[in-house]
Amino acid sequence: MGASIKREHSTARKTHKHExxxxxxxxxxxPLQSIVPEMCVMYAARKRHGAEVxxxxxxxxxxxxLIPASHSGILNADLADSLIDxxxxxxxxxxxxxxxxxxxxxDIKPHKYMATRYLQLQHPNKNGKTSGDGRSxxxxxxxxxxxxxxxxxxxxxxxxxxxxxxxxxxxxKTGDSSVSYGCGLxxxxxALAAALMSxxxxxxxxxxxxxxxxxxxxxxxxxxxRAEQNLVRPxxxxxxxxxxxxxxxxNITDYYIERExxxxxxxxxxxxxDPYAELLDIFTHDFARSAALFEREYIFCxxxxxxxxxxxxxxxxxxxxxxxxxxxxxxxYRYDDVERxxxxxxxxKSKARYLVQTFAQLIDFLQHKQKTKVPGFANCTALTNFExxxxxxxxxxxxxxxxxxxxxQSLLLKKHPKKVRHFQKLFESFERIQxxxxxxxxxxxxxxxxxxxxxxxLRELPRLxxxxxxxxxxxxxxxxxxxxxxxxxxxKLDTATARNILNFQKSYLSLISLVSTETRTAQERVLxxxxxxxxxxxxxxxVTGNGIIRVSAAxxxxxxxxxxxxxxxxxxxxxxxxxxPTLSPRTHNADSGPTTDPNLxxxxxxxxxxxxxx
Amino acid sequence: xxxxxxxxxxxxxxxxxNRICIESTGKRHPKITYIPANSEWGLEDFxxxxxxxxxxxxxxxxxxxxDFPFTQEMKARALESDVIFLSxxxxxxxxxxxxxxxxxxxxxxxxxxxxxxxxxxxxAIVLTPNIQTATYPSFDxxxxxxxxxxxxxxxxxxxxxxxHYTHSPRYKKALLQASKKAQHPLFGVPDGSGLIYTDDELRxxxxxxxxxxxxxxxxxxxKRKKVARTSSLIDTLPQIxxxxxxxx
Lengths: 614, 248
What we know:
The complex is a heterodimer of chains A (614) and B (248). Chain A is an alpha+beta fold and 614 residues long.
């Protein structure tokens, strides 16, 4: 991955424009335009002048086959020009046409670009007649290295599918900031935050869309170019389910399956002749997995009945506008979306479950050409499977965070499920305790504060047990676990808490003992491995939503050379957030110091200072 | 009551010193507390450390980073070990954290109790009177990015220690110059070599170049890789007065 913005007029190695011809293939054309034309609102587009490349994801570009694997991590002038040629554009929208605004012919792009229709709960029409990509277009599909990728851009102008267009029943000029959700542009700090968080998630193997590039403009806006192997959302399909449009539902579902198969992502756990049944099975699995991941890793991703904010494929995160990673289990946080409140972290599961229920309805419609109402699927097999997968993944992720290897996780889940459940219950009893301060307002919503940081417990406890295999006293446990939010009254030790502290440690040690016995490994060695793995999984300087917002703001505020220098350090910043429990010995001398770069240290300080926040 | 100063290199490259470290405890399976100079790279190094020591003999390891808050209970348990090993890293950052967490006093007490203290590079420098050797030469010094001013260290070894030494003209020039001002003898020690200080006797494993008052006055080399028994690897350092006032 790379984010270098240094424009190098290469002398050491000459680059040529033809090296970047692959970008020319991202030209607006996309198979969905002929397969499901009803889904696409087509826009002519023109060049947007004044762009500079603020960020480019070299690793992603190499993975996609857009640039050669041997390409340096430095942005040269030819590459920058290619990126600007391909992605610095703005649509000629309904407002432009109504007002007969003329643009230089040379600025008009040769092909049209599509905005797609899908369900969105923000819209007054709940059947998706007016909703979809409000400020994004799809740049096209790109096939490279045997995979096909969808590329889209956010901030390319106001479309007729924005909530504002629907609310006010009129078309908006691109850049009109008088209405929320209507101007069609994107802010640079938000784009940077999305690029950083999505890349960190990707490196930590959380399914997500990724940022390919950010183009920045002098007015503080940006175009955020995103890529994923399949950008279809459940909301795209649900729209046809809602309207009972069987033909288009079948067309987009078949298209989706075909793309997944071609990209090698079609791995059904059941083998039936019915691909729709297989699709339901995969969807159920993926959404249960992501819901469990979000809850265990404190990821706030606003799921709702519309199937927006998440991709069909692998239930991957997209649209980072409201996505956050909490430092603690702040279970009452809700995003304030002006006219409605989001879900809480604990409500995400029920929303994911409802999406599965709706998807079961959708598959049934595809299979029988007759729509049954969604409550009719309240007891369907998919929901039973969802619950099973969810619980299994939640326990697996907890065991992983404890520091157990894949082998030990499987062993415990298979042979000692009761012991794992007991441990999970005790763990969550601490994790979910909220401060007596209660719910209060924050910048973008409301929240409450978790009293304990159980990630700290998972990191420190094995070190203590490794040094001396004895349970720690209550006050030591509290000292490790207490968050910066905990007030004295939150930490009053009653009999039940004291008993839970002891039981939690005993339960923890019993799992260690079981793995030790089952794998015939000395208990001390199991603890040693867990010490190393848990230290990475539960790093004390894990970035939070607030942290990433402040980091992006700090970078955006910097000017000139300082900003360029800081942007150059982003790959290193991302590397510091990667949880890689399989540590391999370093190739260099065992004598490296901490990062001494003052710009990077400043970013680390921000991360550290906001480590327990939302 | 041993002090073992590693110059650097991978832990596996320091097998003889590792062996001395283990044998100094007189225990079959000694308990070793590893304190990383910084937790940023600490775990990768710790794993390498564990593997290298395990190759010699099964030990019991404790991992104790100090640049994030820790409990007194953790500190107490970490200090129960037979060996404390201070890793390599940024010397200024490491010394500052050792001082701020009260670990300098604890390490002195640990040493006084007869246990083994060892360190690699930055970890070795902090065992000496001060960390001046981290400040030069300009082409190979640690970045004092925290602006540390008090460079006095543990003062457990009566000499200064320059790790990763290469016997080239530019290093020689730098150390000759530095030794003019240094209040203690100054050892330039190449990677893979080290010093062992036990009961007022300073010994060399491998190679070392001793600079004192602007002169290169001694040199020693042992065939460290060819002999299995560590005791025969060590040359006792001749002709040098180490009875220096450590408080000066």
